[in-house]
Design brief:
This protein is α+β, with helices and mostly antiparallel strands. Helices cover 42% and strands 12% of the residues. The protein is built from 27 helices and 20 strands.
Length: 782
């Protein structure tokens, strides 16, 4: 009996000991956890974000380029293509999908889901315990978890503390917005704004249920669930999200079942620096922004430079996204057709030195060697210490290469094996283009196409490239004559040949221009002469006003390129950019007032503070009367001259490849002033076209002038450049929201020069100037 009592006493004491140890361990564990969190909050295990850091978490924000119609044209960034959005810019579909999938009790807890945590501890594998707030804390402040169990526990503690602080600092809506903004969805889709634009070409507020479900599904692992590389996995994951949305009452079973059967329906729109809309303009803007940030007057309040790749600037530009799209579409429709015609004329069988004409084989080799030394490959190998001989030999070794090619009328890339020297020759066979469109009153540039494909042709032919302008220079000669001599477009001048003797204007040799059609009999009105680009009449006008006033006028019209003060500039020998030509022509449409082209309206920081606001630059260059008369002269080009095909459906009357260029139905009825330009040997084709509120210039040609069409059939500006203008303007007119004018150019109230030739002929039956040209002094100053 005594032994039994002793055993019972011992068992009782053991149980009490177990209970004491249990409570000691329990309380000790609680205190240890509390101490762990206390030490973590004191920064013992590493710096924790304070109130200020939580208010301004360090995330790189891309600079956003915003068009005049409010669309994102592109962004500047290094690694993070991130543009944050507010909660009100998220569709309800995104929020519902997120809560249903990641944190069903999100609206009930304060950063930590106790039930979820307890479930995860007691039943491993039952689901993650991390709340949306915890996941945000992880992404913002300490990244991926460590594999070391001790470090993982410490990180978890920090994560919990940050999550509760976030809940105190922000509203539930703000935390959700931050969570969507911080996540990397892959393929440069940093944040929900970039991701929705890249994968669906939509803003976050416009995403459908299934699109929202796909993006929320990517939160699990965007590297694994990448819709471009793993569409099946992404679809399955999307369907899991749809199932969760049904489970928690956000969608009906019918909606869930129907959406799970649908495809992903991606509209992949990459946002890299070499892809997307307005690539050439964006690169111009990058260079402009670099200069702007280097200016000490444009520094942050702390004196540091702005970083265009990470400071979240917003650059509001004048480009209209719709007009830019129409311009790029016009280029991409016309250029493959024109290229096909060019390629048919320059096969090795038809032309042994293809794509070059009038060059010997030795001259071609010399041209290619010069191209080698200017190229990126030469620079890189030279930097590696290679000799010239070694570098030249490397150009003869076949390598894997991706080249640009027009395939079925569309820009494509083709993988091939090719010698670098053959690649150079291949690219020199391509015709290129530059196009710019501008409002002449405000100076706002509306469209900018520097080439066909920025990835493969990076030289911008709007502002960087300068080419001979041909007959598009003639309006400057005519405008000078109108301003000095007050001639009427209805005045007639003889077609006969003219020679400007040597040294008359400093020119070393006598100059005797020829008419393209070889016609030198009779006379023509100035309107007809400009419409048909009659060289001898332009030369007569040049002889009477002198080259210096013409060159001075061109400079006052914003042309900064070199213009020699010699008579031959009358026929367009100077090399000038599309940018300069459009700015100059705009003064004619703006009653003689030159407005410097404007591309950037303002710059704001990430908080909306205006850092830069453009100031218009204008100056009076011509009288309103002289400008209007010049416009009336150029209207004749599209009524009866080389631009008259804009008035009808054009099909080439001659030529051996009518099936390649099938014609473009323009049939414009409204007033259009313009001028075509074609340089020697058909190396450059131009068209400058104007309506009252839009001036557009187009150039087409190859990289080297030795690559050109054999004949004028396709080698003239009316065939090379004008079709791009026609298709672009047709699209602009069809978009009524753009409000492109189809009215007459504004007529000055005090017009003294008669522009109605029927009235003029009645008053001047002889049809000449009142003062014989022989009696007009040479070289009058403006």
């Amino acid at each position: 009996m005594a032994k039994t009592k002793t055993k019972q006493t011992q068992d009782h004491q053991s149980f009490e000991n177990y209970v004491r140890w249990f409570w000691k361990l329990f309380i000790g564990g609680i205190l240890a956890i509390a101490l762990l969190f206390l030490l973590a909050s004191w920064d013992v295990f590493g710096e924790m974000p304070n109130h200020t850091v939580l208010e301004n978490p360090k995330t790189n924000l891309a600079t956003e380029i915003i068009s005049s119609d409010g669309k994102t044209l592109g962004k500047f960034y290094f690694d993070d293509n991130r543009t944050p959005v507010g909660y009100d810019e998220l569709t309800e579909n995104l929020v519902n999908a997120l809560i249903a999938t990641e944190d069903t009790r999100y609206l009930e807890h304060s950063g930590i889901d106790a039930r979820g945590t307890l479930r995860a501890i007691l039943k491993p594998g039952s689901g993650g315990a991390s709340t949306i707030s915890q996941q945000l804390a992880k992404q913002l402040f300490h990244g991926e978890g460590s594999r070391n169990i001790v470090m993982r526990v410490l990180q978890k503690a920090k994560e919990w503390i940050i999550a509760t602080r976030l809940e105190r600092q922000y509203t539930k809506e703000e935390i959700i917005a931050q969570y969507f903004n911080i996540y990397d969805f892959g393929n440069n889709g940093d944040g929900i704004r970039s991701a929705s634009n890249i994968y669906f070409d939509k803003e976050p507020k416009d995403l459908s249920i299934k699109e929202s479900a796909m993006l929320v599904g990517m939160f699990k692992n965007s590297s694994l669930y990448n819709p471009r590389t793993n569409p099946v996995g992404v679809k399955n994951r999307r369907n899991v999200v749809l199932l969760q949305m049904h489970k928690y009452g956000y969608i009906t079973e019918e909606v869930k079942d129907s959406l799970q059967k649908t495809a992903l329906d991606l509209r992949y729109s990459p946002q890299s620096h070499r892809d997307g809309t307005a690539t050439y303009f964006r690169e111009y803007l990058r260079s402009w922004m670099k200069d702007w940030t280097n200016d000490k007057a444009n520094r942050k309040p702390d004196g540091k430079k702005y970083n265009i790749n990470s400071d979240g600037l917003k650059v509001f530009v004048t480009i209209d996204s719709r007009m830019q799209k129409y311009a790029e579409t016009a280029v991409n429709r016309h250029m493959p057709r024109l290229q096909a015609a060019f390629d048919n004329q320059n096969t090795p069988k038809k032309n042994p030195t293809a794509p070059f004409l009038e060059l010997t084989k030795d001259e071609v080799e010399d041209l290619l060697k010069k191209g080698m030394r200017r190229g990126e490959r030469w620079r890189i190998l030279k930097k590696q210490g290679k000799s010239n001989k070694e570098i030249e030999a490397s150009f003869e070794e076949p390598i894997k290469i991706t080249v640009f090619k027009w395939v079925d009328g569309k820009a494509s890339e083709v993988d091939t094996i090719m010698k670098p020297i053959d690649s150079m020759r291949y690219y020199k066979s391509f015709l290129r283009t530059g196009m710019m469109s501008m409002d002449p009153q405000t100076g706002h540039v509306k469209a900018w196409v520097g080439g066909m494909n920025y990835r493969h042709f990076q030289y911008d032919m709007v502002k960087q490239g300068k080419r001979q302008v041909g007959s598009t220079f003639k309006p400057f000669v005519y405008a000078t004559a109108m301003d000095q001599l007050h001639m009427s477009p209805c005045d007639k001048l003889p077609l006969s040949q003219i020679t400007i003797e040597a040294n008359k204007y400093g020119n070393p040799e006598a100059w005797s221009p020829k008419n393209d059609d070889g016609n030198y009999g009779g006379d023509k009105t100035l309107t007809d002469a400009l419409a048909n680009s009659v060289n001898t009449i332009t030369a007569r006008l040049m002889d009477k006003v002198g080259p210096q006033p013409v060159a001075d006028l061109a400079r006052r019209l914003g042309i900064t390129s070199n213009i020699p003060e010699v008579p031959s500039i009358a026929l367009g020998t100077p090399d000038i950019s599309v940018y300069e030509m459009v700015g100059a022509y705009s003064a004619f449409a703006n009653q003689g007032v030159y407005t410097k082209p404007v591309m950037i309206e303002r710059i704001e920081d990430k908080n909306g503070t205006v850092l830069y606001q453009f100031t218009p630059e204008t100056r009076d260059v011509l009288s309103a009367e002289s400008a209007y008369v010049t416009v009336k002269l150029m209207e004749g080009v599209t009524q009866s001259g080389s631009g008259a095909r804009l008035r009808r459906t054009w099909m080439p009357k001659t030529g051996v490849y009518p099936e390649i260029i099938t014609g473009y139905p323009y049939e414009f009825k409204n007033p259009i002033a313009g001028k075509t330009g074609t340089t020697q040997n058909q190396s450059d084709g131009w068209f400058m076209g104007m309506v009252p509120n839009l001036v557009t210039g187009v150039w087409v040609g190859a990289e080297d002038r030795a690559a050109h069409f054999k004949s004028i059939t396709y080698g003239q500006g009316a065939a090379m450049a004008l079709p791009i203008w026609g298709m672009y303007m047709k699209s602009c007119y069809e978009d009524e929201k753009l409000d492109i004018s189809d009215e007459n150019f504004e007529r000055p109230k005090d017009l003294t020069i008669e522009v109605d030739c029927s009235k003029y002929q009645a008053e001047n039956p002889d049809g000449g100037t009142d003062t014989p040209l022989e009696e007009i002094p040479d070289g009058l100053e403006l």
